[in-house]
């Protein structure tokens, strides 16, 4: 890892109002390095350069953290109480691995249908010694009765598909957290009547000149 990468990550964290330990910063950069190494063989992501990875992967994933922490605190996950998060269509572990690094009291499960991607996430969990992270190679529809407090996705599928496929994994009081680019008005209009949007947040990703929004949904 380079000093410039470390400095840019720390500047990005400051811009997002986040405070991580030196160990967590090192874990995030080690994770990015792992993606780069595995990318040479397994083509985990289309983003190749370390600088682009830092902005498009790490900082893009970190941008949701303040909102996630606020939500968890508001529903009673304080003082080390463990919350369970499912990252659907996780790919190389984005945002799941990043959230597991930053939130030791968050139990993160990353699910993906591509075996090489879940194998990579398991390797990242082992290398980074993240006991709160695991990967499942499966279709999310098969995770029934899993009772996750938050089910999230990052550019995974339409809101209808995302919520329909993962509803059986969501706890009765759980919420969906969808990371999107532009505000997806058409997708929202297509949602069934039993799925409700209750909050939208615009996100600003340090170093990225791109629209980002965070959609919060729950089942009625």
Domain unit count: 1
The biggest sheet, with number of strands, parallel, antiparallel or mixed sense and barrel status, is: 7 strands, mixed
Mean model confidence by pLDDT: 94
CATH-assigned fold name: Rossmann fold
CATH level 1 class label: Alpha Beta
Structural class from helices and strands? alpha/beta
Taken as a percent bin, the fraction of beta residues is 15-25%
Q: So, CATH architecture?
A: 3-Layer(aba) Sandwich
Secondary structure blueprint with pairings:
Elements: H1 3-16, H2 22-42, H3 50-62, H4 65-74, E1 83-88, H5 96-102, E2 106-112, H6 115-127, E3 133-137, E4 148-154, H7 159-166, E5 170-180, H8 185-189, E6 195-203, E7 212-219
Parallel strand pairs: 1-2, 1-4, 2-3, 4-5
Antiparallel strand pairs: 5-7, 6-7
Helix pairs in contact: 1-3, 2-3, 2-5, 2-6
Which short descriptors sum up this protein?
single chain; 220 residues; alpha/beta; Rossmann fold; seven-stranded mixed beta sheet; 8 helices; 7 strands
Task: Characterize this entry briefly.
With 220 residues, this protein is an alpha/beta fold. It has 8 helices and 7 strands; from the N terminus they run H-H-H-H-E-H-E-H-E-E-H-E-H-E-E.
Write up this protein.
This protein is of the alpha/beta class. It has eight helices and seven strands, in the order H-H-H-H-E-H-E-H-E-E-H-E-H-E-E. It has a seven-stranded mixed sheet with strand order 3-2-1-4-5-7-6, sandwiched between helices. Strand 6 (about 195-205) and strand 7 (about 210-220) form a beta hairpin.
